[in-house]
Structures are given as C-alpha cells and as structure tokens.
Amino acid sequence: MKLPIIAYGDPILKRKGIEIDKDYPDLQELIANMFETMYAAHGVGLAAPQIGLGIRLFVIDASPFADDDPALKDFKKVFINAEILEEEGEKWSFNEGCLSIPEIREDISRYPNIRIKYVDENWVVHEEDFTGLAARIIQHEYDHIEGKLFTEKLSPLRKAMIKSKLEAISRGQVDVDYKMKFPLLKRKGR
User: Labelling 21: which of 30, 90, 99, 174 has CA 20 to 30 A away?
Assistant: First the structure.
C-alpha cells in the first residue's frame, strides 16, 4: 500500500526516532509498504518519520545508481535501530533531494566512509562499512531517524534563499506525482 509522504514543516521530521523491537506491530507489512511508497515516488530511500512514524527504521534501494557504481546493482536493504559508529574521510559534495522536500535539490557535503550497526528485517544484527553513494544514501536516511533534514546542512545564506520554497512546500504549493501530507493544510482542517 502506498502511504502519503510527510512534507517539510511537519514536527515529526524534527523528532529523533525511538527504537523498536521485533514485536513491533505489522513490521513486515510496514517495510513492504515503505518500499512500495518509495518506488512510487521514484526515491532511493525512505525513513519512517517521512510516513509519520517516529521510529528508527529506514529502507534503501540504491540500484538506480548502479550505472555510476556497479556495486549498487542489488543494493536493497532495511535498517532498523541503526547507529552510525564512524564517519571517515574527506567530505565530498553531491546534489541531494528528499521526498519530503520535493523540487529542492542542493549540494550537500558528507563523509565518504561510514561504519553502521543495524538490525535487518529478519532481526539479524549487522555491523558493516559502506562507502561512496551507498554511504551517502545511508547518511541521508539516518539523518531522518535523528530528526535532521538535509536543508540543515546548508549555509545560512543558502537557507535564506530557499526559505520561500520551503514554506510553499509546507502549505502544499508543490506539484508532485505521489501522495503527500502537508502540515499547514492539516492545521487548517483540509
């Protein structure tokens, strides 16, 4: 089932997610719905706060980047209760977007190498190293479960330049081809 994606401005996107256990209700169905929602929106990652759930869960399918990095050909993963243990290397910029902040793309600097501990959908614990685009996508989604958005990494000047676009998104004044929930429309009872 495709779920609506929460738009910029909703407080859930600024809250740190809580850990879950293997008895979380309908977890496998939730994961399947998150993948379906992500694919319908043409994304490569989706975190639970983006569908209104304040939990530490995100999904990734980086296969659209396989032309740039062949190692991403079958890179489809579920991350539960993730914790980044290390970030290393010289930060590099890459143009990022976010399903919760449509029509805005910015160059964001991130570390090229990470070590992360997480639980997968079968409740197996992993501690793995990731590099390049895989590391970048993981860091972006990890920020979501930490209550952070990529726009917070922008300079004050750049933030000021996109402020009106961000406000328009929160009011629902954006054209997307996937279901979204807009915080200011919700408050007005629409």
Answer: 99
- CA distances to 16, 29, 111, 142, 176 from 147, rounded to whole Å, are 4, 24, 19, 9, 23
Q: Of 99, 94, 111, 101, whose CA–CA distance to 159 is shortest?
A: 101
* Beta carbons of 100 and 170 less than 8 angstroms apart: no
Which of 83, 106, 141, 152 is flagged as catalytic? Answer: 141
- For the segment 3-34, what is each residue's pLDDT rounded down to a tens digit? 999 999 999 999 999 999 999 999 999 999 99
- Answer positive or negative: Cα dihedral of 112, 117, 121, 125: positive
pLDDT tens digit string along 72-94? 999 999 999 999 999 999 999 99
Task: Indicate whether 188 belongs to any domain.
Answer: no
User: Which CATH number does the domain housing residue 157 bear?
Assistant: 3.90.45.10
